[in-house]
Amino acid sequence: MHSIIIQWLLAGAVAAVATGKARRQDGPIDPGTAADCTYWETALDTSYTCVYYQDIWGISAAELLDSNPGVKADCSGIKVGNAHCAVENDNCDKIVRAYSTFIFANFQLWNSDVKPDCSGLWNTDDPASHNHNYDAAGLDVQLERTYANPARGNLWM
Known about the structure:
Elements: H1 2-18, E1 21-22, E2 39-42, H2 50-57, H3 61-67, E3 83-87, H4 92-99, H5 104-110, E4 133-136, E5 139-142
Antiparallel strand pairs: 1-2, 2-3, 4-5
Signal peptide: 1-16
Organism: Diaporthe ampelina
Keywords: Signal
């Protein structure tokens, strides 16, 4: 049973890498792209359109355009090979949809500070805290701000 869980987690990690989704930007970006972007996706071919980014990442057209000024309202400006800011401000629903390899109950199990209403994901008492990891199916993912228990660290080393 343990090996099945490990295989499932590895499959999720491979899927994230194979799709071009990355925590760090791995392709060129347009000037003015959001500096505080937490998640990037490189357009691997012409199927990466505005609708693709909106559907996969659960973001609005306005969020996509605000974070990626090189992308125009008619969706021109998405360049194959370029990294585009896909998620500027994470929430539980966006995180689960972005990975598509686990459900919220798993995410909450891996991150004990996250409550059923997603409170606890951000530590709003300390706006200066940033770049802390949370667990998502064993993948190392960064938030713009730390969650409520920074001493806990990453469970999946």
